[in-house]
Amino acid sequence: MDLVIRDARVVDGTGTPSYRADVGITDGRITEIRREGDGPRLTAARTLDADGLALSPGFIDMHAHSDLALLRDPDHSAKAAQGVTLEVLGQDGLSYAPADDRTLAEVRRSIAGWNGDGSDIDFDWRTVGGYLDRLDRNFGGQGIAVNAAYLIPQGTVRMLAVGWDDRPATDAELDRMRELVAQGMAEGAVGMSSGLTYTPGMYAKDAELTELCRVVAAHDGYYCPHHRSYGAGALQAYEEMVQLTRDAGCALHLAHATMNFGVNKGRAPELLALLDDALAAGADISLDTYPYTPGCTTLVAMLPSWSSEGGPGSILTRLADEGTAQRIRHHVEVLGSDGCHGVPIEWDAIEISGVGNPALSGYVGRTVAESARLRGEEPWVTARRVLIEDELGTTILQHVGHEENVRQIMGHRVHTGGSDGILQGDKPHPRAYGTFPQYLGRYVRELGILSLEECVAHLTSRPAARLRLPDRGLVREGYRADLVLFDPATVAAGSTFEEPRVLPVGIPHVLIDGRFVVEDGKRTPTLAGRAVRGTGRARG
């Protein structure tokens, strides 16, 4: 064998009690597991004494925004140091493939707050397959820091086939979108995402989404919607997605399934009852959450959808016009815009976390309300100025969550972990660097919300099953050696809202395909990550 991890507490991802064992690895796979007392110790070219550390499958981040970060940063310790060995990209209906030159320019501008403007990236792909190939041949053919799977972004698909118009797709445009989704699935995507509070994806009606989900289902993929409301209409929006995917015969994975905003305080049991009823009726549903209360998005996402029709340039034109800007303000502050989930915005809950324009750095770390007070002006005036001067590239933290909802949802049997980690900005959400150790440290060890074995199953085998990966997510003979060694007594997130880029503690070793990407608590130069492709096979 190449490596034996000796005397580990194996938390194998099944949710069953842990056990002591030696684990042998050869050619990137687990080749033997010998439990304590079952015979002589395993031997190999190299031995690592785990000394009772927990050994689990690598963690799978079911909701990541590392689409460009993996291409620009060979270190990527934000995820590698957490024990993440696989990220799912292409989230919230907006990413960089499939695209043409026009669409690529538009999507780069519209999600600069998530991933940067991409000026440092050679966008030498236009298809899903081309993007996945690029991941594999990145950094001179070495690959990427961690593995990555990809969801076809429905908003980008609509941008490519329809544009930014708020109208139903024509028959020809719908056919084009079906073709693009089918091609992306055949090229290796694992499913399709939507951002139904983001333009232009939100302009799609249910009938259009159902047709695209039928294509996804035919290729054994899943639909991952950021649905139409996380606020005033949250439960109705969840129900809409459940019914839509039942009609399409498609598996459903609910992205960052929180119950935020004051209107939803204490209402997590209603969501879970809705899911239980659907599961009992035969629906195929899973969800992900992050173990924090605030959300994170872009400031422009708070605006009403009508103000975004036509794309980023049109938004800026409308913001520059006094009359139109006042109409936008009325929707945001009084009516509750669809971009803010039907809830009137609370400017003292909107903290600016990152800007693209360095001249605006003084706003970072303050709420819009606080900055407005310092300037002696109304919050809308401040927000409007920042949007215009930052060319819509501003990211925010939105402090609208409820701890009791977070705890109840994470305990559900179809729950998985997803960081929703935006790595851009001077003060990003700490979930980008801390989601997985936060689960293990705070919610397992400190609060006892989940047992260690149950939590590891949430973060490993459940997401692997959703991704249809037959050889990942468990510590089992024949499976890939994507593994994490951590100390259950000390593992914890280092990142905080004040210092969000601090790495976790208590995770000394991380392996991908049997190669150390973190060793003795330090990132190695190894680039063991590759694109993880879906089967792409059409049923029938």
UniProtKB/TrEMBL annotation:
<dbReference type="InterPro" id="IPR050378">
    <property type="entry name" value="Metallo-dep_Hydrolases_sf"/>
</dbReference>
<dbReference type="Pfam" id="PF07969">
    <property type="entry name" value="Amidohydro_3"/>
</dbReference>
<feature type="domain" description="Amidohydrolase 3">
    <location>
        <begin position="47"/>
        <end position="518"/>
    </location>
</feature>
<dbReference type="InterPro" id="IPR011059">
    <property type="entry name" value="Metal-dep_hydrolase_composite"/>
</dbReference>
<dbReference type="GO" id="GO:0016787">
    <property type="term" value="F:hydrolase activity"/>
</dbReference>
<dbReference type="InterPro" id="IPR032466">
    <property type="entry name" value="Metal_Hydrolase"/>
</dbReference>
<dbReference type="InterPro" id="IPR013108">
    <property type="entry name" value="Amidohydro_3"/>
</dbReference>
<keyword id="KW-0378">Hydrolase</keyword>
<dbReference type="InterPro" id="IPR023100">
    <property type="entry name" value="D-aminoacylase_insert_dom_sf"/>
</dbReference>
<protein>
    <submittedName>
        <fullName>D-aminoacylase</fullName>
        <ecNumber>3.5.1.-</ecNumber>
    </submittedName>
</protein>
